[in-house]
């Protein structure tokens, strides 16, 4: 009966909300806008406006007064420096995130088996607290070519000298006209031949007295010894008397021998024997047959010392800076992947162990597939970060190789403010960098939204 009456009357009357409820909702919206407005204002001033201004500025010339259309974008892809920056950016995007994600995964898995896991994580994460400026200064010193300053080259020189040895007298040389002539390979030989039973004095200069080995002894007593009939002996000495005086080409009483100097004896162009000088610089060759012989000082005696690796040279500057970046961000990747690892279902891992799988199989077939979403987020986040890397490259790379290490971010600054003074081309580079970053950002946002669902 009631339904029939309502039907005849055209349905139930509309339900009207009280005015108080509408006013409360309107007030809530106003309050929400009031709270959000400062954030929107800052977002517009710090992000939206600079982006729109850069896009517009990229269509004008260096002075900003003449519209040039797409000329800046065309010039950007014809400039060798920009092409080099794009190439280096591609190297960074491929190498750095891949290595960081791999290192973070390995360390996160290994840390679970370390007793002091928390302390280990803290130690690896500490570089994140260091600013890029400080990290750049640290690694600029670590990569210094001088082994007395750069720790890496100090280690390289120590290892090299331990296996290969080093020359004691890299600056030594004979006086002109004192019986030694230089060969093409840097060695020295006597201009006159000598027969067994003679003593030959080989004087050198160019060695500072304070650079002599500690076991060096005066050469004068050794020069006075008489050679046996079947031996050829002599002394290699520093032909320099401290305080002045002395005679050139003769061993004076105050002149020091040069120990550990390699001396060879040759006949008819063929080396017969080799020996090393004693602390007083003396040497001797015994059981020599009759004939004439030539004495030689091999080039190894005068080889320059090994100075290490040119870490910041054109060939290695980009890998060296990537190494500094890895030092900073490895802890970040390890902590994020470790958090994902802690959330893995342990029953799946235990079931695999019960089925007889070893740890490598568990890692390869179970751990990595289950961690794929976390690894993807870490990788994409690092890709976004390396596209914007600027501080490390600007600080670590020396001026002469700055162009060899440049990426899009540094090239944008160099073109705009670092001497180029072309904000039009710099804005075009900024727009290119933005276009490259946006797809990675969109992908990351979608991944985050998907994980929240």
From TrEMBL:
<feature type="transmembrane region" description="Helical">
    <location>
        <begin position="30"/>
        <end position="52"/>
    </location>
</feature>
<comment type="similarity">
    <text>Belongs to the binding-protein-dependent transport system permease family.</text>
</comment>
<dbReference type="Pfam" id="PF00528">
    <property type="entry name" value="BPD_transp_1"/>
</dbReference>
<dbReference type="InterPro" id="IPR050809">
    <property type="entry name" value="UgpAE/MalFG_permease"/>
</dbReference>
<feature type="transmembrane region" description="Helical">
    <location>
        <begin position="324"/>
        <end position="345"/>
    </location>
</feature>
<feature type="transmembrane region" description="Helical">
    <location>
        <begin position="424"/>
        <end position="445"/>
    </location>
</feature>
<keyword id="KW-0812">Transmembrane</keyword>
<dbReference type="GO" id="GO:0055085">
    <property type="term" value="P:transmembrane transport"/>
</dbReference>
<feature type="region of interest" description="Disordered">
    <location>
        <begin position="166"/>
        <end position="193"/>
    </location>
</feature>
<dbReference type="GO" id="GO:0005886">
    <property type="term" value="C:plasma membrane"/>
</dbReference>
<keyword id="KW-0472">Membrane</keyword>
<feature type="region of interest" description="Disordered">
    <location>
        <begin position="1"/>
        <end position="23"/>
    </location>
</feature>
<protein>
    <submittedName>
        <fullName>ABC transporter permease</fullName>
    </submittedName>
</protein>
<keyword id="KW-1003">Cell membrane</keyword>
<keyword id="KW-0813">Transport</keyword>
<dbReference type="InterPro" id="IPR035906">
    <property type="entry name" value="MetI-like_sf"/>
</dbReference>
<feature type="domain" description="ABC transmembrane type-1">
    <location>
        <begin position="86"/>
        <end position="444"/>
    </location>
</feature>
<feature type="transmembrane region" description="Helical">
    <location>
        <begin position="366"/>
        <end position="384"/>
    </location>
</feature>
<feature type="transmembrane region" description="Helical">
    <location>
        <begin position="122"/>
        <end position="143"/>
    </location>
</feature>
<keyword id="KW-1133">Transmembrane helix</keyword>
<feature type="transmembrane region" description="Helical">
    <location>
        <begin position="90"/>
        <end position="110"/>
    </location>
</feature>
<dbReference type="InterPro" id="IPR000515">
    <property type="entry name" value="MetI-like"/>
</dbReference>
């Amino acid at each position: 009966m009631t339904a029939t009456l309502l039907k005849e009357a055209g349905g139930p009357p509309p339900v009207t909300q009280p005015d108080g409820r509408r006013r409360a909702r309107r007030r809530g919206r106003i309050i929400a806008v009031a709270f959000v407005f400062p954030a929107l204002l800052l977002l517009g001033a710090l992000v939206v406006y600079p982006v729109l201004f850069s896009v517009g500025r990229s269509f004008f010339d260096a002075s900003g007064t003449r519209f040039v259309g797409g000329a800046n974008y065309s010039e950007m892809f014809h400039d060798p420096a920009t092409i080099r920056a794009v190439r280096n950016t591609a190297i960074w995007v491929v190498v750095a995130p891949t290595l960081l994600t791999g290192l973070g995964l390995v360390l996160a898995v290994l840390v679970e088996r370390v007793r002091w896991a928390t302390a280990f994580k803290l130690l690896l994460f500490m570089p994140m607290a260091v600013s890029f400026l400080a990290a750049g200064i640290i690694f600029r010193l670590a990569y210094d070519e001088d082994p007395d300053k750069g720790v890496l080259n100090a280690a390289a020189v120590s290892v090299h000298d331990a296996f290969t040895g080093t020359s004691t007298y890299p600056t030594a040389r004979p006086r002109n006209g004192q019986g030694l002539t230089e060969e093409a390979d840097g060695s020295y030989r006597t201009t006159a031949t000598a027969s067994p039973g003679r003593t030959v004095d080989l004087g050198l200069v160019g060695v500072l007295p304070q650079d002599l080995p500690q076991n060096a002894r005066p050469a004068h007593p050794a020069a006075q010894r008489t050679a046996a009939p079947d031996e050829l002996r002599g002394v290699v000495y520093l032909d320099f008397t401290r305080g002045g005086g002395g005679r050139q080409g003769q061993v004076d009483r105050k002149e020091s021998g040069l120990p550990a100097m390699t001396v060879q004896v040759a006949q008819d162009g063929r080396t017969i024997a080799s020996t090393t000088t004693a602390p007083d610089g003396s040497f001797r060759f015994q059981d020599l047959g009759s004939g004439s012989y030539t004495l030689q000082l091999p080039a190894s005696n005068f080889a320059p010392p090994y100075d290490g690796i040119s870490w910041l040279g054109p060939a290695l500057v980009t890998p060296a800076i990537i190494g500094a970046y890895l030092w900073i961000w490895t802890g970040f990747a390890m902590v994020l992947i470790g958090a994902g690892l802690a959330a893995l279902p342990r029953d799946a891992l235990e079931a695999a162990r019960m089925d007889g799988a070893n740890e490598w199989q568990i890692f390869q077939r179970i751990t990595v597939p289950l961690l794929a979403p976390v690894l993807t987020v870490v990788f994409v986040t690092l890709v976004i970060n390396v596209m914007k890397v600027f501080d490390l490259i600007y600080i670590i790379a020396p001026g002469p190789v700055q162009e060899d290490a440049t990426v899009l971010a540094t090239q944008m600054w160099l073109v705009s403010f670092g001497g180029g003074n072309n904000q039009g081309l710099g804005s075009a580079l900024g727009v290119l960098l933005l276009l490259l970053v946006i797809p990675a950002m969109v992908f990351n946002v979608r991944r985050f939204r998907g994980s929240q669902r």
